[in-house]
Design goal:
Blueprint lengths: L31 H8 L4 H6 L2 E6 L2 E6 L6 E3 L2 E2 L1 H17 L10 E10 L8 E10 L3 E10 L5 E11 L1
Antiparallel strand pairs: 1-2, 2-6, 3-4, 5-8, 6-7, 7-8
Length: about 160
């Protein structure tokens, strides 16, 4: 029986591990807004929804989700689950916005309630999230979901987010 050193390539089409060269550490985020600027464009679920961060700072975040037919339920009406997911992302962003970074870089939505007011039809979604209370670990937030072009309020959410 022969053994192969994993560092030695056995298949010429796959040359094996390569040394990436000298690593330069990424600068650490300076506050919660910086954490969100890094996380939102790389979070797999957020990327699937197409959500982008428009602005963030001092307890407020504005995001956008483009209209896509894959996110509809009937005709061109955006599915409530997609709207709820956007509210959750908004709560997270508002909770972190401008906040000091805790020792443990983690967070979770602990509760959320969404009131659906009217359908969003074939229109991008504007997500406006505000932190109402900034406790030591718990933040209470509201999120307005609006038609990006019409400005029509389609849903309002409230939620609690735990940081650290």
């Amino acid at each position: 029986m022969t053994t192969t050193d994993p560092a030695t390539p056995t298949d010429p089409t796959h040359p094996g591990p390569r040394h990436p060269g000298p690593r330069h550490p990424e600068p650490a985020p300076t506050d919660g807004s910086a954490v969100m600027r890094e996380l939102i464009p790389t979070s797999p679920f957020v990327v699937v929804l197409g959500i982008t961060l428009e602005s963030i700072g001092d307890g407020r975040a504005e995001l956008r989700m483009p209209f896509r037919h894959e996110l509809t339920t009937v005709g061109e009406m955006v599915h409530g689950g997609a709207l709820g997911a956007c509210a959750d992302v908004g709560i997270m962003a508002a909770a972190w916005a401008g906040r000091e970074i805790p020792d443990k870089l983690r967070g979770v939505t602990t509760s959320m309630s969404v009131n659906f007011l009217r359908p969003l039809q074939a229109e991008d979604l504007r997500i406006v999230a505000d932190r109402l209370h900034n406790g030591k670990r718990l933040c209470h937030c509201t999120v307005d979901l609006l038609g990006a072009t019409s400005g029509t309020l389609v849903a309002r959410a409230t939620g609690t987010y735990q940081i650290g």
